[in-house]
Structure prediction request, 321 residues.
Amino acid sequence: MCPQNSEAEVINENMEAVEGTEIVYEQDDNILVCDGLVKIYKTDEVEVLALQGLELEIKRGELVAIIGKSGSGKSTLLNMIGGLEKPTAGRLYVDGTDLYAMPEKGLVEYRRKCVGFVWQNSGQNLFPYFTALQNVEAPLYFDRMSQKERREKAMSLLKMIGIDHKADSYPAQMSGGEQQRVAIAVALAHDPKILLADEPTGAVDSKTSNMIQDIFRKINEEIGITIIIVTHDLSLANKVSRVIMISDGKISTEKIMKEKYRLQLDNLTTESLAEVESHEEYSILDKARRVQISQDALDMAGIDSNKVRVEVKDGKIIISK
Ligand code: ADP
Ligand code: MG
Prediction:
C-alpha cells in the first residue's frame, strides 16, 4: 500500500485530498479490515494470547473508540494497525492491502506516511528540547518543503487544534493537556490517513479529557481523517459515534450512537452527557456464528451452566437455561 505498490497512486490521491477544504470519501469503503487476528507473546515460561482471532472493519472517515480493561489487547491491536506488531496469525488489510505481506521497506513507508500516533505519555510524543512548533515541524523534515512552508503548515495545525499560543513553549512549560494537543498536531503533520491514539486521555483530568475528545471529533469532521482511539476510559464513549468493546483479545460488543443524541451533542455539558442514553448496543456475531454474552446478561437470565437452550420464537433467537 502507501506507496509501495499499484494502489499507491490511489492512496496518494486521497492524501492530497486531505489538504483540500472538502473531501468526499466513499462511505461504504473500509479503510481497515482485521481478519482473524491472533497475537501470541511467548516468554520463557508462558504464552500469552493477546489477540484471539479478532475481527473488525472500520470505514474510511470513521471516529471509533475501542474500549476495554487493562490487558484486553488494546495496545497490541493498535500497534498492529500502526505497522509495529506483526500478527502471529490472521491478516490485516489497510485500504485493501495486506499490511504484513508487504516487505519491511513497505511497512517503514507505511508507518512514516500513512499513520499518525498519539501515545498516552506525552513524553513519548514530543522532543523535550524542541518548542511546540519545532515538534510539529520535525516530521516534515523528510518532505520536500521549504522552511517557510514547513513553518506555515506546522502553525496552521497548531491553530486548528487551538494551541498556537503555545507555539514557542517547550513541553516542560506546558500542562499535560496542552502537551497532548501539540502531540495531536505532530501526529497530523505528515497528513496520515489514519490517526491512532493509545489512551490519549489517560494522564489528564476529566475536563481536559473532554476537551481532547472534542478535538478528535473536530479534526475528524474537518479533515475527514479516520481516527481510532483505544482506552479503558468509558467516558470517552459519550462523544464517539462508534464504540467497540474489546475483551480477552476479541471484540465483544459494539455501540452505535443514536442519531438524535449525535445532533444534540454540541449542546450537552459533561454532566448532562452522562444522563442521556446515547448509544444502542449490539453483540458481535463472528464468522463462526459465535456471539459473546456478557456476564451481566447471563446473571440476569440466571444462566450458570455451560449448556444453554437456543430456540427461535417469533423470528427471535431466545437463549435460556
Ligand atoms: P491493553 O493495552 O489492553 O492493556 P495489551 O495489548 O498491552 O493490553 O496486552 C494484552 C496482553 O498481552 C496482556 O496480557 C499483556 O500482558 C500481554 N503482552 C503485551 N505485550 C507483551 C509483550 N511484549 N510480551 C509479553 N506479553 C505481552
Ligand atoms: Mg495498553
Remarks:
- Residues 63 and 201 are 16 Å apart (CA to CA).
